[in-house]
Write a structure and sequence with these properties.
The strands form 2 sheets. This protein has a 9-stranded mixed β-sheet. Helix 6 links the parallel strand 10 and strand 11. About 7% of the residues have low confidence. Helix 2 crosses helix 3. The protein is built from 6 helices and 12 strands. 31% of the residues lie in helices and 30% in strands. By secondary structure, the chain is α/β, with parallel strands linked by helices. Keywords: Cell cycle, Cell division, Cell membrane, Membrane, Transmembrane, Transmembrane helix. This is FtsQ-type POTRA domain-containing protein. It is found in: Membrane. One of its GO terms (biological process) is cell division.
Length: 221
Amino acid sequence: MARLQRRILIGAVVAAILIAIAAVVLPRTQVFAVEEIAVEGAVQLSPEEVEAATGIVNGTPIGAVNTHDAAVGVAGLPWVESVTVTRSWPSTIEVELTEHTAVAFVSEPDGKHLIDAEGQEFAVDDPPAGAVEITGAAAGDDAVLAGGVAVASSISGPRREAVESIEARSPNTFVLKLNDGRTVVWGASENNANKALALDTVLQREGQEFNISNPQQVTVR
C-alpha cells in the first residue's frame, strides 16, 4: 500500500513538473503565436502605423513578446499621449492608446506645430478640424502663446471649428476671426469660460464685429 502511495505521489510530482514546464515553454513556441495586433484609440494615426511601431511581427510566440518595449515604441509616435500593450491569449496583442487633442497650432517655416490643451507642442503635422491657428506678432512670446492656447481650449470642439484663427494683437488682446468673415474681440486670456459661453450666443447673432471682453456686456456693430 505504501509503495502504491509513493507511486501516486511521484506521478503527481512529475505531472506538476511537466505542467510547469509546459506553462513556461509552450507560450514561447509557435503553438501560441501572435496572429493579430488589435489597435484601439487611433484616430489621427492609422492602425498600420501603430502596429509597425510595436516592432511585433505576426508569428512571434506571444510569450516572447516584450510588451514594455512595444509600448515604448508606440509612445514614440508624436500623436500618442499614453499607451498600454497587453497580451490577450492565445494569439492577440492589444494596443490601447490615447492621442493628443490638437486645440491650436502655429505656422512655422517647417510646418504646422500642433499644440494640445496643456500647451504642449507635440507634432508637426496637418492640423485636424477643431485646431485653431494662433497668429499675430505677439504670438512669438511664449506667455502670449500660452494665453492663446488657453483661449482656444476654453472653446468647445464644435465651436472651435467655426474659428479660423486667434490673432494675438498684444499680450492682453486676442481677436477671433471666424470662418464666415466676422470678428470677435476676446480681450485678455482671462475669464475664458464665461467668454466661451458668450461666444456661443454671438455665433447665433447677426453682426460683423463683436466684443466679448466683458462677457456680461457683449457689444456688436
